[in-house]
Amino acid sequence: MTEFARPDGRKVDQLRTLIFQPNIAPNAQGSVLACFGDTRVICAASLERKVPNWMRQQGVTGGWLTAEYSMLPYSTLDRKQRDSTRGRPDGRGIEIQRLIGRSLRAVIDLQKLPDHTLWIDCDVLQADGGTRTAAITGAYLAARLAVGQFVAEGRLKENPFRDSVAAVSVGVYRNTPVLDLNYLEDKDATVDFNVVRTGGGQYVEVQGSGEEATFSQEELGSLLALAETGIAELIRRQEAFINQNMPRKEVVHAELGNKIPL
Q1: Each residue of 124-175: pLDDT tens digit?
Q2: C-beta separation of 29 from 47 below 8 A
Q3: Which of 65, 138, 146, 259 has the highest count of CB atoms within 10 angstroms of its CB?
């Protein structure tokens, strides 16, 4: 009987190597290069003094947060055509950017963004599985960096974030539940999940399906447990990143929780 092994030799509950590099896009108020193994996503946050027309028309107060997501042509093994060249938007990209927006709006108080829109831009430099989960995890960090600058400049009165948010993929690969799938695992997985969760332990979204396969309640439980393990580590890494890259007045110890006051 062949012993189970992952393509990159990781344990079933082990994340890929994580790197969060700040200030990768100097013209954005907050930016991070989020690296999950060979998946690399630039996440940038910018504040615009404007809200969508529908908010003004419906008399909705506060501000808005929205996201855009794209995969650069050279991010995949075969060149990916740009939307502008193809003449129509990529349905997968639209789905992912909506997920990123929903995930961050779940942990922000939009009333503390009066008459402003916080734009989140996520551009995939290199894709090796889990681009949407890397984008969500990095986007939160980019937004936190931006918020710090906005408050320092007096453009915002206080930090609008109530909690942190992170995401990870899990799946069944070669009949075994595994955490944080790379491309080789993702393309051969019989079950694939993306899990988004807050630092406070609340789920934002669970996307899962069998790839022409089914899964049991036991497998579902194993996958969610793996996701909990992975997201707990991601949140610890987010806290360390914020403590290292924000002004000293914003530093908070892990035991005080994930709500990082300005």
Answers
A1: 999 999 999 999 999 999 999 999 988 888 888 999 999 999 999 999 999 9
A2: yes
A3: 138
User: At how many degrees (to 10) do helices 131-153 and 91-105 cross?
Assistant: 50
Specify the length of the chain in residues.
262
What's the half-sphere exposure (Cβ side, CA atoms, 13 Å) at 91? Answer: 0
In terms of phi and psi (left: phi > 0; alpha: psi -120 to 50; beta: otherwise), the region of 37 is: left
- Distance between CA atoms of residues 20 and 34, nearest Å: 5
- Alpha-carbon distance of 8 to 232, in angstroms, equals 22
Rounded Cα distance between 112 and 114, Å, is: 6
Residue 118: partners with Cβ closer than 8 Å, 6 or more residues away: 45, 46, 47, 48, 63, 64, 65, 66, 108, 143, 146
CA 13 to each of CA 31, 110, 111: distance values in angstroms, whole numbers, following the listed order: 29, 35, 38
Token pair, residue 95, equals: 């789905």
Q: What angle do CA 45, 28, 25 make, to 5 degrees?
A: 110
DSSP strand pairing (203-210 vs 165-173): unpaired
Structural domains of the chain sorted by starting position, each given as residue range(s) with its CATH number in brackets = 18-80+87-249 (3.30.230.70)
CA 116 – CA 63 distance, rounded (Å): 5
d(CA 140, CA 146): 10
User: Rounded to two decimals, what is the model's pTM?
Assistant: 0.89
Pairing of strands 64-71, 117-126: parallel
The pLDDT value given to residue 78: 75
The most distant pair of C-alpha atoms in the chain lies apart, rounded to whole Å, by: 65
